[in-house]
Amino acid sequence: MKIEFWSDIVCPYCGLMDHRLQQAWKRFDHAAEVQLVHRSFQLHPDLPREGITQLELLEKAGMPSVADQVLRPVERQAAAEGLAPYRVLDRTLGPTDLAHELLAHATDQGRGNEAWTAMFRAHFGQGSKLWTASEVLDFAARLGLDREIAAEVLKDRRYRTRVAADQREAQRLGARGVPFLVIDGRRTINGAVGTDQLLSAMTEAWDADHPVAQSLPTVAEADGVCGVDGCAVSGTHAS
């Protein structure tokens, strides 16, 4: 089973969804046969490189009420699910193009899932800024990636096209935003859902693609039956 997960590291629902997906994956009966692929989706590519606080962004957008009506509840929900600290309001946001390019590089190094989860935790758990090349390279070093190679990756922008293609593909598939999941190329989940719902969706997808032969119910007692050892009337031994 292949699960493709589009997200942005500054999206609070995405960080929560990453946690829920990991929990659902652990509970899934066929976890060893699941391939999780993270894909990029940038929410605020035009933000200043130096960053802007979440509250400032809400005020500029004319939506200050979102802080208490939407974002604080996300913090409480994360805490209730064992994901703490999880700072949604007290943080800085910025353009995530370089962060996504580093994540693409980490994926090619076989460390994609680890890197995405670590970046969510760095941003929401530790308030890390990940907008400039220097900030992203500091994260790469903490993750254990070669800093010099990562610097070359960001300098020549070799993953820029791939990051942009991820976003176009999500939009082609009908994404209205993130988080956005596609299971086995044909089942989509738009927005954040709970761990139980994720597990149910994974199970339904697996069962649909791996039908199990089931015995038909008995509707009446048979007159007799023949097997490899002979035939018999019901209730007697074959002869």
Characterization of this structure:
With 239 residues, the protein is of the alpha+beta class. It has one domain (2-209): 3-Layer(aba) Sandwich (Glutaredoxin). Helix content is 48%, strand content 13%. The chain contains 9 helices and 8 strands. The chain has helices at 12-27, 54-60, 66-80, 97-108, 112-126, 133-143, 147-156, 160-172, 195-209, and strands at 2-7, 35-40, 52-53, 92-93, 180-183, 187-190, 224-227, 230-233. A 4-stranded mixed β-sheet has the order 2-1-5-6, with helices on both faces. Strands 3-4 form a two-stranded antiparallel sheet. Strands 7-8 form a two-stranded antiparallel ribbon. Strand 5 and strand 6 form a beta hairpin. Helix 1 (12-27) crosses helix 5 (112-126) and helix 6 (133-143) packs antiparallel against helix 7. The longest helix is centred in the first third of the chain and has 16 residues, at 12-27. It is globular and about 55 Å long. The two termini are 48 Å apart.
